[in-house]
Design brief:
This protein is mainly alpha-helical. The chain is about 55% helix and about 0% strand. The chain is built from four helices and no strands. The chain is globular.
């Protein structure tokens, strides 16, 4: 379960599992806005105040505001569902 004020894990998973090529412009914009909001919330919420579930979720989604690609992003790109083309 995600912490209050954070994007739900099911919402993140749903956005990540749908191929970018099948998303509408509205979905792309919505994903970007939600992702940015969640990233900001992650930045301002100290690790010591995050629930264990939120820490795990942030780790999996790469929402620790590091420059590394998330595990979810790497998996999505590996199976051709991501937007990376390298």
């Amino acid at each position: 379960m995600s912490d209050q004020g954070r994007q739900s894990f099911t919402d993140k998973a749903g956005a990540a599992l749908k191929p970018d090529s099948q998303k509408t412009t509205t979905e792309h914009v919505g994903d970007k806005v939600k992702g940015t909001g969640d990233s900001l919330a992650s930045t301002f919420q100290p690790e010591s105040q995050k629930s264990t579930g939120q820490q795990v979720g942030d780790s999996i989604s790469g929402n620790r505001n590091e420059n590394d690609e998330s595990l979810l992003g790497k998996a999505k790109n590996a199976v051709g569902l991501g937007s990376k083309t390298d």
